[in-house]
Amino acid sequence: MTRFWRSHSSGLVTFLLLLPALAGFFGLFFYPMLLTVILSFRPEGEIAGWTLENYTRFLADPDGSWVILLTFLLALGSTALSVLLSVPLSLILREKVRGHQFYRLMVLVPLVVPGLIGALGLLLFWGPRGWFNLFLLQFVPFVTQPVAVNYTLHGLTFFYVWLYFPYTCVTTLSALEALDPAIEEAGAVAGATRWQVLRHIVLPLITPGILAGSVLTFMAAFGAFSVPLIAGGNYRPLAVEIYKQIAVPIPARWSAASAIAIIMGILQVGFLALYMRLVRRGGGSARAVR
Amino acid sequence: MSEGMIEFREVTKRYGGLVANDRLSLTIRRGELMTLLGPSGCGKTTALRCLTGYIRPDAGRILIDGKDVTDLPTHQRELGMVFQNFALFPHMHVWDNVGFPLMIRGAPKAERARLVAEALRLVRLEGYEQHYPRQLSGGQQQRVGLARALVYRPKVLLLDEPLSNLDAKLREEMRFEIKEVVTRLEITAMYVTHDQAEALALSDRVAIMNRGRLEQLGTPEEIYEQPQSRFVAEFIGLSNFLEGFVQALQDDRMIVQAQHLRLSVAALPRVTPGQKVLLFLRPNEIEIQPRRDPAAANSFEARVEKATYLGDTMDYRLTLGQGLDLRVQTDARHRHSPGVSVWLHLPRVRSWIAEQQ
Amino acid sequence: MSLARVYWRGLWSGRLVLGYTLLLSLTLFILAPFLMITLRSVGKGWFGRLWFPPQLTLDWYRWAIEVGNIPEVMKNTLIIGVIAVAVSTVIGIFAGWAFGRRQMPGKELLMAVVLLPRMIPPITYALGVAKIFYTLELVDTYLGVALAHVSVCAPYAILVLSATFEGLDERVLEAAGVCGANTIKRFVYVVLPLIMPGILASMIFSFTHSYNEFTLTLLTYGPHTVTLPVRTYLAVGDGYWEITSAMAVIMVLPSLLILAMIQRRAKPERLVGGLKGV
What we know:
The complex is a heterotrimer. Chain A has helices at residues 2-40, 53-60, 62-94, 100-112, 115-126, 131-139, 153-177, 181-189, 194-222, 226-231, 238-247, 254-285. In chain A, 78% of the residues lie in helices and 0% in strands. By secondary structure, chain A is mainly alpha-helical. Chain A is globular. By secondary structure, chain B is of the alpha+beta class. Helices cover 24% and strands 36% of the residues of chain B. The model of chain B has no long low-confidence stretch (mean pLDDT 89). By secondary structure, chain C is an all-alpha fold. Chains in contact: A-B, A-C. The interface between A and C is large, with 90 and 85 residues.
């Protein structure tokens, strides 16, 4: 007994230390996920039996595939816009203009604020009585009616951008600051204007960083819940659809919700794997060679 | 009227309270390789960066081939530059790296191919066109950097401590290669380093800098044999210093009394008796003799305090009494042990007027 | 020169102005929602097309507190937060100690696994959690909601505390031992003070996450465990923007304060892409 203890004690102690974390992980994540998987294959409302109808019903139904398409569109659109916003922004922030620390802080604000609050404020700002429309009505000549932004598809995309562009921006800025300045100097001495240095040297080198950041934004936008819940109007992306399946019908449709949840989970894990691949691959070439 | 290829006219650059370049004036002649040499912080790198245009001087003008480029942006100055950490573009292979200056200038593909091939041949890297910088050794990367700097045959080549990131043996090899290439192409080059051996080996002329100012400008021989200030004397090679007073003048020589020693030294212009002078001797110019040589001037008795064997040389610390110590280096054929009395012969003694030091 | 070129040149030479314009627009873009919420929460008689409310009032806050039940909601939020932080910190200390100071095979993989709940949208596993809680009768209990929060808070706690423990220099402990301190004294006088900042940081992070947590709460709450986020959401459904704004302000103030505090110390970039390491 003592021999066992002596040779395995270190491992046992480590295991004991990890026990609370493992228990938490299993009880609050792994087992629930397992349950969700099982539920997804259960006929609605029953406690036994296996079926694929939850999946088939969702995927075959035009409404179901619309939900997936919608989620993709929102995520892709907001990611593309985020990149368009983040790249110039990062290039400016890199220059250490006056007050750049303040602006960097600004970029982080959407990250720490709960989506609910952000969505609320955005609804107020872009609404018919909000400042955006007030500005249009008072200062832009040919606008006589408030422009609808809230509860529209493009509006929702803007909201996503507000919430999730910081992921792209921060990653891009990091990639920019990791560049060896001597490389840009070499480009300038070789005859390249600042624009040419940007185009031929800087941008290619930070592209892996931009990509990694945009995958983060995409993942966040894809899984968005609280924002489309209150600001989506009739548009229900995946997360909201899952919730609606158990919140609206009576009795709650757990199996249907589970199937959608599993589909969403698989897709998210796929994106996560993509992110890991990009991070691993991009990490090497962007840094200056010694 | 400028006859030089590169000219600094009273270039001044300040960083807050620190003066990095203090009214620096320098002319580098066509086809010459000049080295800016000095300790860190002396302003040599600042001067180089003023020349590239990366830094704007606070005052003064910079001319390249007679043209005032002070207000010209970097990319229009038509320079070639080799960097300390190579600064190769990591995302491009060697061919693209070397061809970059040509691509930027819109050269047609055929011409680019020809010039890149020539450049690679010049640095002996044919066959490496498709390699990426991370696949190359330090020496190879530096050669790619050199090829990139020379590919469009600029009039001026700048080298910013290009060999400091290489190991010692490689440094010596690359020194020859760089010198050979620069000579062959008849390019004017400005070289920046803190390594005096490099400076002496490579340069046509050396500019020694200290705290933003030019201390001395001359050929390697001039710098080594006739240092004009204590700083230069200390920076290049080894040195011994003695303080003394001029006792008398005899033709072209002066008699200097340094404590209990009377030395006969080549006379300084405009020197008067009673003036304080600083004497300077190189350790390898002092001879050690076992006996006094009555015919030689400047012969003194000394005792060996320390003797260090360095393989090809012996390094001695000797004392001449009354706190006067000298460092002497001789070849290792004759060795003297500590405690032994010897006679030192000082054939070459240089001097400066002390107030200047 | 073509028109496009002229345009481009103009843009490039005006880049300083353009840059600042972009930065200021960004600031407006980010802050405008908060400004609107704040103004709505104190505006009286703000109908029609006005930039600012004609009168200021605290009525809405008063309503939120007296009729909207905010004090009780706040109480719920805080109690749940405290429980969640306590559980997460305990998990974090033990697991952090294991990750930071002990050998184990596949440490990187385990770390990735621990962070998995944060990489997947909570709704996916919240369903399962809700189902389990219904069976265990944990729905609408402080413990239940707090445990749901732990799945969000614990990964960050582990991340922070692993780094803290890893940073504990073995040699300092050795020096203390050489100076004559036994295990308990070493722990009290050396280990504890050194890990205290890490523990505090992890507690602040965990509390912030629990305080703001919405999705999981939405699926596990009941009439006795309404938290601030849920209450604000319910207010949106009611349609009174003013009340909702007041609750939102109450809700968001701590987060902004904490951001202001930590931006001086920690590198906020760490918050992003957690899998790349602390």
